Amino acid sequence: MSQPIRLKDHEKDARLVRNRVVVGAVAIMLLVCVLIARLYYLQVIQYDYHSTLSENNRVHVQPIPPTRGLIFDRNGVIIADNRPSFSLTMTRERAGKWPEVLDAIVEVLGLTADDRALFEKRMKQGRRPFEPVPILFELSEDQIARIAVNQFRLPGVEVAAQLVRHYPQGAHFAHSVGYVGRINEKELKTLDPVNYSGTHHIGKTGVERFYEDALHGQVGYEEVETNARGRVLRVLKRTDPIPGKDIVLGLDIKLQEAAELALGGRRGAIVALDPRSGEVLAMVSQPSFDPNLFVTGIGFQAYADLRDSIDRPLFNRVLRGLYPPGSTIKPAVAIAGLDSGVVTAGSRVFDPGYYQLPNYDHKYRNWNRTGDGWVDLDLAIMRSNDTYFYDLAHKMGIDRLSTYMNKFGLGQRVSLDMFEESSGLMPTRQWKRATRRQAWFPGETLILGIGQGYMQTTPLQMAQATALIASKGKWFRPHLAKTIEGQPPVDENPIEDIVLRDPSDWAKVTHGMEQVMHNARGTARAAATGAQYRIAGKSGTAQVVAIKQGEKYDRNKVQERHRDHALFVGFAPADDPKIVVSVMIENGEAGGRVAAPVMRQIMDAWLLDANGQLKTEFAPATVAQEKAQ
Amino acid sequence: MINNFDRMLSSEDVMRRRASFLQRIHIDGPLLIILLTLAAGSLFVLYSASGKNWDLLSKQATSFGIGLVSMFIIAQLEPRFMARWVPLAYLTGVLLLVVVDVMGHNAMGATRWINIPGVIRFQPSEFMKIIMPATLAWYLSKRTLPPDLKHVAISLVLIGVPFILIVRQPDLGTALLILASGAFVLFMGGLRWRWIISVIAAAVPVAVAMWFFVMHDYQKQRVLTFLDPESDPLGTGWNIIQSKAAIGSGGVFGKGWLLGTQSPLDFLPESHTDFIIAVLGEEFGLVGICMLLIVYLLLIGRGLVITAQAQTLFGKLLAGSLTMTFFVYVFVNIGMVSGLLPVVGVPLPFISYGGTSLVTLLSAFGVLMSIHTHRKWIAQV
User: Fold this and answer.
1) Residue A259: partners with Cβ closer than 8 Å, 6 or more residues away
2) Looking at chain B, which residue has its C-alpha nearest residue A40?
3) What is the maximum alpha-carbon separation in chain B?
4) Which terminus of chain B has a lower count of CB atoms within 10 Å, N or C?
5) What phi, psi does B372 have (nearest 5°)?
6) CB-based contacts of B334-338 (< 8 A; 24+ apart in sequence)
7) How many other C-beta atoms are found inside a 10 Å radius of the C-beta of residue A180?
8) What are the extents of the domains in chain B?
9) Which among A10, A14, A49 has the least Cβ separation from residue B248?
10) CA distance A534 to A574
11) What is the pLDDT along chain B (381 residues), one digit of tens a residue?
12) In chain B, which residue ranges form alpha helices assigned H by DSSP?
């Protein structure tokens, strides 16, 4: 039955809607269950994860770098301290497009493209996220003002105050104390990331490097609550850093200055030791440089100038300069000869001006071509007679000679606390076989007897070898630090003292060395003129260029840089040594004439008071007692 | 039919006995209580989420007052009166959307506002949230149910015009909600299941087409971020990571009121508007969110009861659509903040800060009250 007019069936419509309401209600209930399941997942199952995330958001641990320990000379004069300095830092995460911000900094401060390259390099060394990376140091007032005015253009850029290492004595201690510099990527890999988390600088050389652990201290930290923009709202917990330990050095700034003055502008090295303790009293390597340049990063050009200079100011001649010891080794060789019994104080050798091995044509020359005639030990040392020592060395042989020289510290690192000391070279048969694939020739032993040949020593080793004669064989490793936070440094690997079969041999050699200074025929008699005290010394000359057989050294034919190095070692007062000095003057030619006066000046500076009299504490015991009475 | 009449009479007896002051001023008691509960809860959570900002709180309270007045006025209007004026309101709304569209292009940027300084400032799209379902309810109530293909097509045009205009503002979130409100009218009107299923099946290619031709970059970015928030943890993924961290760190019982950390330390963006549920979740935990969901369910349940009890088809369709759309608000907002859905700008109804949405929502509930309190036997009381 068709219905032409379709009437609205309200009951049907109502039923239809009611059905849909039920469907809708069921759908709503299902979807609410989905929501609750999701919330259950987040709030119950993942609770720990989100809780940690939320807490990490809120709480940041900020490292507080410890204050680096100070370095003093033996009298309490500051050699290294920390000064507040303003540096420019940038936080990469807050800077947005940081290369553009770098451009803006360069523009605002009127810097160059070189500076920008340096900034970029430093930015790339940034470590943790949200860490402000210092890119420019020692801002001037003007620069700080410019940054402040342009702050709106420089997101993530801040001026931060921090303590920066400063060396008020400048170049005086660049080679002994060294310097700190920015931590580089290589160092970063080996450093304790926690302890260095707030530190930007690390000791690079010298005392700063060797005592890095003591000087650095222990990092502190504070837990701070930060907001999403990294602003610190409050400190929740703070653990103070433990500052680095202060170090008092054995160095004496007045002696250091006197030594530099004595050396004049010449290239060379000087070490002064106290033979009773091994403390280094002065350590000069000239030319030197200003360590402050390296603290905040040296410019490319300034560094290139230092590195490429023919005078090699960055080269530490005291620790790394290798020179044949020349005649300065003779006192030690003499001890070896006496102790091994190949010579006695009275045994004599005839010197015709040269020495010849049996069955060899080669003539080993004495420096004095005319010869000194019959020579005993005293005379051999006093006149630095080569023939006597050729004979001695030949009789000893390389094995015994090498063993004795090792006891004097040659061929090994002698210092207790010096960074990158060279061990030098004291050759042996085994060494030659291993490196040259050749047998040892007797002639090579002869020239070792006068400190030539393969032998290479540092000025420090020569000072130590001489100190051993002064201390009669008692070993104290030379060391720069007198105390670290009041504690003297401990030698954990002490070297055995030299014990002679006849201890009076020390006095015999010392007597010969005194003759060098005080005898009318001594090679350095001029340097001891008018001395208030007895000096024991020995001159030496280190060849830079080998001289052919039969050729005579003619200074006029040799270029200045090819002239011999002048060496001198000595100690004073000879009967109760308080100071040992080793002097090396590059291309200085004559040890006795050039280097000995330098040594004398240093000894005077150390032993004499303002009136030119021997200081009471250094005066011989008998004299002091007389004065006391 | 007679049985049914008896039942209606008997319920009328109940009504008569309860015919009270509230009913005479056309206010539905249960709805009012639930709404006031939500308002109180909103101020409570907002105080913490806004960082103890009394200014903001008083503004929200004022908006709530304005919304209640608006609700009260709308509740006085008879549904039949509404139905009569709905077509005109719809045309006005579309016209205003066109104006906004033109103005937006002139201003070389997006705008959602009609702003006559000193006179009025409002979003026509908010207005459409009520007009859209009312228009469709008016249209379908005059047709035979379930609607046939022609009527469905006309309905889709009625939905489509304002939808496209709002998408162009661009405001995808609001546009989708308006689309949903219209679609729910069709659903309540008994849209055939096979059509519903085919539309859902067709949604996939449409979504792909939208991706390439309609959506703006920032909208695409939101979707991408939703799929993998960790891909850009400091950029667009930040919101979701931080809101999840806020909710998740609340645990079962929460950190306690005013003891949350994510919002006061600014890690949680939009913490007092769209992301306020994260503050609630952090400070009151799973228990707090469940309690809020229960209040919402009570509100929706009352809405569905009103739908079922409505006497006119217009009333049924409109009440049903408004109630279902309300749930969509809740679901989309919580789903978005908890990382279930992509980030679309949908506030949490009644809790989020924002006067416009509050007034619109309360107006919608005014419509529900009108539908419920203007039933014939009540009028005779």
Assistant:
1) A270, A272, A282, A284, A598, A601, A602, A605
2) B286
3) 68
4) N
5) -75, -35
6) B334/A35, B334/A39, B334/B277, B334/B289, B335/A35, B335/A38, B336/B274, B337/B243, B337/B247, B337/B274, B337/B275, B337/B277, B337/B278, B338/A35, B338/A38, B338/A39, B338/A42, B338/B243, B338/B244, B338/B247, B338/B277, B338/B281
7) 27
8) 37-376
9) A49
10) 5
11) 444 544 555 555 555 555 677 878 888 999 999 999 999 999 999 998 888 889 999 999 999 999 999 999 999 999 989 999 999 999 999 998 888 888 765 544 456 677 666 656 677 888 899 999 999 999 998 887 788 889 889 999 999 999 998 888 777 788 888 999 999 999 988 888 888 888 888 888 888 887 787 777 777 776 776 666 666 555 556 778 888 888 988 888 988 888 887 777 777 777 888 889 999 999 999 999 999 999 999 999 999 999 999 888 899 999 999 999 999 999 999 998 888 887 777 889 999 998 888 999 999 999 999 999 888 764 443
12) 2-18, 21-24, 29-49, 54-76, 79-106, 124-141, 149-167, 172-188, 193-213, 217-227, 238-250, 276-309, 313-337, 355-373, 376-380
Distance CA(A228)–CA(A493), nearest Å, equals: 54
Architecture of the domain delimited by A253-488+499-626:
3-Layer(aba) Sandwich (3.40)
What's at B36, amino acid-wise?
A: L
In chain B, residues 109-168 whose CB comes closer than 8 Å to chain A: 144-146
Q: Tell me if A498 sits within 8 A of A468, measured CB to CB.
A: yes
**Spatial separation of the C-alpha atoms in residues B187 and B185, rounded to whole Å:** 5
**A540 backbone φψ class: left, alpha, beta (φ>0; ψ -120 to 50):** beta
Residues 281-310 of B with CB under 8 A from A: 281-282, 285-286, 289-290, 293, 297, 300-301, 304, 307-308
ipTM of model:
0.88
**Whether A31 and B320 lie within 8 Å, measured CB to CB:** no
Q: Which residue has the tokens 């349940």?
A: B301
- Out of A20, A31, A58, the one facing B320 most closely (by C-beta) is A20
Could A13 and B313 be called an inter-chain contact, meaning their C-beta atoms sit closer than 8 Å? yes
Of B262, B290, B304, the CB nearest to A21: B304
Please give the Cα distance from A244 to A198 (Å, whole number). Answer: 14
| Token pair listed for A584 | 């090396």
Q: Which residue of B has its CA nearest to A233?
A: B265
- Report pLDDT digits (tens) over B164-206: 988 887 777 888 889 999 999 999 888 888 888 888 888 888 8
Write down the residue that tokens 């991408």 correspond to: B224
Going by C-alpha positions, the residue among A572, A414, A425, A571 that lies closest to residue A480 is: A414
Which residues sit opposite A608 in a β-bridge? A614
CA distance A515 to A538: 9
Known catalytic residues of A are: 327
Q: Which of chain B's residues have a Cβ under 8 Å away from the Cβ of A229?
A: 266
Find how far residue A60's CA is from the centre of its chain.
37
- Which residue is closest to A46 within chain B, CA to CA? B248
Task: Give the rounded distance of the alpha carbon of A101 from its chain centre.
Answer: 38
Among residues A585, A572, A559, A560, the alpha carbon closest in space to that of A326 is found at: A585
Burial of B87 (0-12, 13-18, 19+ CB in 10 A): middle
pLDDT in tens, A222-245: 877 776 666 677 777 788 899 999
> Which residue from B249, B327, B335 is facing A28, i.e. has the nearest CB?
B327
Where along chain A do its domains lie? 253-488+499-626
Q: Quick check: A28 and B297 CB within 8 A?
A: yes
Tokens of B355: 């006067």
State the maximum Cα–Cα separation within chain A, in Å, rounded to a whole number.
159
Query: B317 CB near a chain A CB, below 8 Å?
Result: yes
Rounded to two decimals, the pTM is 0.65
